[in-house]
Amino acid sequence: MNAARASAGSVIALRIAYGAALIVAPRRLALRWLGPAAEDAPVQVALRALGAREVLLHAGALFAAARGGPLRPWLAASAAGDLTDVIATAMGRRRLPPSSTPATVAVGGGAALMSVGLAVAVDS
Description:
The structure is a single chain. The protein has five helices and no strands. It has 124 residues and is mostly helical. It has one domain. Helix 1 (3-24) packs antiparallel against helix 3 (41-66). The two termini are 13 Å apart.
């Protein structure tokens, strides 16, 4: 396994862990992102769905990695998910905590860039 695939595997495993944590403790993970709205049960439903997206998408990527399959499509899908989170946060910024949008751009945008970088490196 080359260094790029090993790095991708580590990132993928962390994304699975993040998704699982979001399913189990949505309020705790999203309070800084969404503010008091993270305490509402309907919002937690959407957060758990987001966690499930993370787990399922990245479990598929981990399975592909374990079989030596291509990771580029999985990493591209991961980047697309991160970018939708950034866009959705920017669209709702007026009702979110002031630090939410810049933090989401930094974290989500950074994660998307990392996934794109890994996608370029991993299957080259």
